[in-house]
């Protein structure tokens, strides 16, 4: 069944969540998946090795560098970037399908990718997830315990540039608590779209 109200939800647009490594993007995303299941999240491709507990196809599509490069050549990415020694990209098809159906979509990506989306889809809204302080960011990134010292150093170097880019974003959400940040982000996504037939 398809319902067409005269004042149906406006055409949905893409929302991009970005912010420095360790700020809590993944944590906010996980809470949104659990408590706001109507929010659709893109699953990225990456050449990085899975962390313990990460599931292929759910957290990421873990691919080889050859596979990733073939996807670039075939134009399969909406955006992609090299970040801290690995490649990351958003598969174009699922996002475009979602937006064509008039449903909101959320990407969690780093700064270079956010800039590409801004250029190719100027209608998208860019949300910056900020840490309460630099010291807290360092604490979160090191406390996660998933990267070695050299990788943490690389990510903190990138974080300085990412923090300096905040003014390029449409909105800032400060991640004081995961629940508060998730709720502010969901507010920015707008109310759940009217679900059309066949779309979830
Ligand atoms: N509001 C918060 N308060 C305290 N700790 C937090 C908060 N948000 C996230 N954390 C913790 O900070 C660490 C980093 O969080 P997370 O992995 O979600 O960051 P990220 O932005 O996704 O990082 P990356 O970009 O490197 O993947 C985790 O150990 C997480 O539990
Ligand atoms: N440009 C893109 N960046 C992405 C994508 N998927 C994730 N990311 C970002 O990469 C870093 C590192 O992630 P991690 O899981 O290795 O810690 C982080 O900032 C992610 O937001 C993507 O498809 N494109």
UniProtKB/TrEMBL annotation:
It catalyses: GMP + ATP = GDP + ADP. Residues 12-190 form the Guanylate kinase-like domain. It holds the Pfam family Guanylate_kin. PROSITE patterns: GUANYLATE_KINASE_1, GUANYLATE_KINASE_2. The keyword DNA damage does not apply. Its EC number is 2.7.4.8. ATP binds at residues 19-26. It is found in: Cytoplasm. Its main location: cytoplasm. GO terms for cellular component: cytosol. GO terms for molecular function: ATP binding; GMP kinase activity. It is an enzyme of class 2 (transferase). Coiled coil: none annotated. Keywords: ATP-binding, Cytoplasm, Kinase, Nucleotide-binding, Transferase. InterPro entries: GK/Ca_channel_bsu, Guanylate_kin-like_dom, Guanylate_kinase, Guanylate_kinase_CS, P-loop_NTPase. PANTHER family: GUANYLATE KINASE, GUANYLATE KINASE-RELATED. Belongs to the guanylate kinase family. Essential for recycling GMP and indirectly, cGMP. This is Guanylate kinase.
């Amino acid at each position: 069944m398809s319902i067409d109200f005269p004042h149906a939800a406006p055409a949905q647009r893409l929302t991009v969540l970005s912010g420095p490594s360790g700020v809590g993007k993944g944590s906010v995303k996980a809470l949104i998946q659990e408590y706001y299941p109507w929010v659709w999240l893109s699953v990225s491709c990456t050449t990085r090795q899975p962390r313990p507990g990460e599931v292929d196809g759910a957290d990421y599509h873990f691919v080889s560098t050859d596979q990733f490069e073939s996807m670039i050549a075939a134009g399969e990415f909406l955006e992609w970037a090299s970040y801290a020694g690995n490649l990351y990209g958003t598969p174009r098809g699922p996002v475009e399908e979602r937006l064509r159906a008039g449903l909101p979509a959320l990407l969690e990506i780093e700064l270079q990718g956010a800039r590409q989306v801004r250029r190719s889809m100027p209608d998208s809204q860019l949300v910056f997830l900020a840490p309460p302080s630099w010291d807290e960011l360092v604490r979160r990134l090191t406390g996660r315990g998933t990267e070695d010292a050299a990788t943490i150093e690389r990510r903190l170097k990138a974080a300085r540039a990412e923090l300096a880019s905040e003014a390029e974003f449409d909105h800032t959400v400060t991640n004081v608590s995961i629940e508060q940040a998730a709720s502010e982000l969901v507010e920015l996504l707008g109310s759940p779209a009217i679900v059309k037939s066949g779309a979830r």
